[in-house]
């Protein structure tokens, strides 16, 4: 199938499945998902879906909450259809941590005759199932319980390994079932978290453009339009999302799945994850270290999108002294950087330092080469920065939905805001506005200006 910018808005989500997509960008795209059901009473079609793929026995996994929300219903339809299954429910009322122990606990449950994992849930359960699915070559089918994040269709799984939030390449689920009857009844904070994750795409797509201009990264206008169209549809129907309108919830779930398809198309998370996600991951790790209750991923992403929008505003208003930037690059202190990483990342520090040194991320020569590229393309970069909605516009969108827009609303204090802006770039290798401002020696100055802005707006 051929796709172009003009044709994207006329396609349905199912049109992207099971086809080799020949794109305007000259790359061939494909997603390994075979079926997506986002409809009312979608769970009733689970047995049919399992038999379509000729599966014989499922391992059904859930946690205590998702078991109550949809697990018993899944069991009922499987029993009624005489489909063989084993069920495993993660115990514990607290947040499920996707670490080595949790992965091991899931692996132990897989019996020799298991040929599919049916995962009832969203974020962490989704990541665990996809990772284990990839490791043991048993496919997974996701039964979503809330439209709360965009990882359903992605080929990545975010786990905590050696105390560091790490993304692992894995496989897409074989199928995704989003039962609108269940999704619309999800806690409103989870629905709004999904909306926050969608709003974060403003930042992610801007970072991708920066990566293209500065580092020559692959970039696809068609994929960008796929994500933008989905995002716009959700933002234009905030009232429907707030009122749990079935059509609006369907749009939100489809947008979350579509961004996962977009990631599969390009082979990485560029279309959906940038500096806003790096900030969210940083805060998540800090809360984990401090034994604080986790904040929903999409909620953090939405708040971070306000911050990255303000960084773009400050950039667009700045006059860059490139001689000063090169001077600062030449005086970079690797030992001081290591001390900062060790102080903030604690148990995860050594892995970050190891990856950094292996990839030569702090290479002065490479940084200076990037500064020259930035200088040559500064007009285009400023134009990119000006296309981002302002921090106040992003704030208004989030507030209209009833979502958090300020770090303090979810317990993220001044130091976590400033340190996050300064050090969240170490969490991932991907080039974003955080790396860009660091290259120019402006990141610390901008971090304090952003915090002052946030504090002023709270008054």
Write the layout of secondary structure elements.
Blueprint: E1 2-3, E2 21-23, E3 28-29, E4 35-39, H1 46-52, E5 57-63, H2 64-80, E6 84-90, H3 100-108, E7 116-120, H4 123-136, E8 140-144, E9 156-161, E10 164-169, E11 175-179, H5 180-183, H6 188-199, H7 201-215, H8 221-235, H9 238-242, H10 246-266, H11 275-289, H12 297-316, H13 322-330, H14 334-345, H15 349-359, H16 364-376, H17 378-387, H18 391-401, H19 414-423, H20 433-439, H21 443-458
Helix pairs in contact: 3-4, 6-10, 6-12, 6-18, 7-17, 8-10, 11-12, 11-19, 12-17, 12-18, 12-21, 13-16, 14-15, 19-21
Detailed description of the structure:
The protein is α/β, with parallel strands linked by helices. The protein has 2 domains: 2-186, Rossmann fold; 190-217 and 270-455, Dehydroquinate synthase-like - alpha domain (Dehydroquinate synthase-like, alpha domain, Up-down Bundle). The chain has 21 helices and 11 strands. It has a 6-stranded parallel β-sheet with strand order 4-11-8-7-5-6, sandwiched between helices. Helix 3 packs across helix 4 (123-136). It starts with a strand and ends with a helix. Keywords: Cytoplasm, Lipid biosynthesis, Lipid metabolism, Metal-binding, NAD, NADP, Oxidoreductase, Phospholipid biosynthesis, Phospholipid metabolism. Its EC number is 1.1.1.261. It comes from Pelosinus fermentans JBW45.
């Amino acid at each position: 199938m051929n796709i172009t910018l003009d044709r994207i808005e006329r396609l349905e989500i199912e049109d992207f499945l099971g086809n080799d997509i020949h794109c305007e960008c000259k790359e061939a795209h494909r997603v390994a998902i075979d079926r997506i059901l986002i409809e009312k009473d979608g769970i009733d079609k689970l047995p049919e879906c399992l038999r379509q793929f000729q599966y014989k026995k499922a391992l059904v996994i859930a946690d205590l909450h998702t078991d109550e929300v949809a697990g018993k219903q899944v069991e009922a339809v499987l029993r009624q259809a005489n489909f063989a299954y084993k069920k495993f429910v993660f115990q514990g009322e607290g947040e499920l941590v996707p670490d080595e122990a949790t992965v091991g606990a899931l692996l132990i449950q897989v019996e020799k005759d298991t040929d599919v994992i049916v995962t009832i849930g969203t974020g962490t359960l989704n990541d665990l199932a996809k990772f284990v699915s990839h490791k043991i070559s048993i496919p997974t089918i996701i039964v979503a319980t809330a439209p709360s994040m965009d990882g359903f269709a992605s080929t990545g799984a975010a786990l905590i390994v050696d105390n560091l939030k790490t993304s692992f390449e894995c496989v897409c689920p074989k199928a995704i079932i989003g039962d609108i009857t269940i999704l619309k009844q999800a806690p409103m904070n989870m629905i709004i978290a999904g909306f926050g994750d969608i709003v974060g795409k403003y930042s992610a797509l801007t970072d991708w453009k920066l990566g293209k201009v500065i580092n020559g990264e692959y970039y696809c206008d068609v994929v960008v339009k796929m994500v933008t169209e989905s995002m716009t549809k959700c933002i234009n129907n905030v009232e429907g999302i707030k009122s749990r309108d079935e059509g609006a919830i369907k749009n939100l779930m489809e947008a979350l799945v579509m961004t996962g398809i977009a990631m599969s198309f390009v082979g990485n998370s560029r279309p959906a994850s940038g500096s806003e996600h790096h900030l969210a991951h940083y805060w998540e790790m800090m809360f984990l270290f401090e034994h604080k209750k986790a904040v929903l991923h999409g909620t953090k992403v939405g708040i971070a999108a306000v911050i990255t929008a303000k960084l773009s505003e400050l950039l667009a208003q700045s006059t860059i002294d490139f001689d000063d930037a090169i001077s600062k690059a030449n005086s970079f202190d690797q030992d001081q950087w290591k001390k900062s990483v060790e102080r903030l990342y604690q148990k995860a520090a050594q892995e970050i330092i190891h990856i950094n040194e292996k990839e030569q991320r702090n290479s002065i020569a490479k940084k200076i080469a990037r500064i020259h590229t930035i200088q040559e393309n500064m007009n285009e970069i400023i134009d990119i920065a000006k296309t981002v909605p302002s921090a106040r516009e992003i704030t208004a969108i989030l507030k209209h939905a009833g979502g958090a827009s300020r770090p303090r609303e979810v317990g993220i204090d001044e130091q976590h805001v400033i340190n996050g802006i300064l050090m969240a770039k170490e969490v991932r290798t991907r080039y974003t506005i955080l790396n860009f401002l660091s290259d120019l020696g402006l990141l610390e100055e901008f971090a304090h200006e952003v915090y002052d802005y946030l504090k002023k707006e709270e008054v």
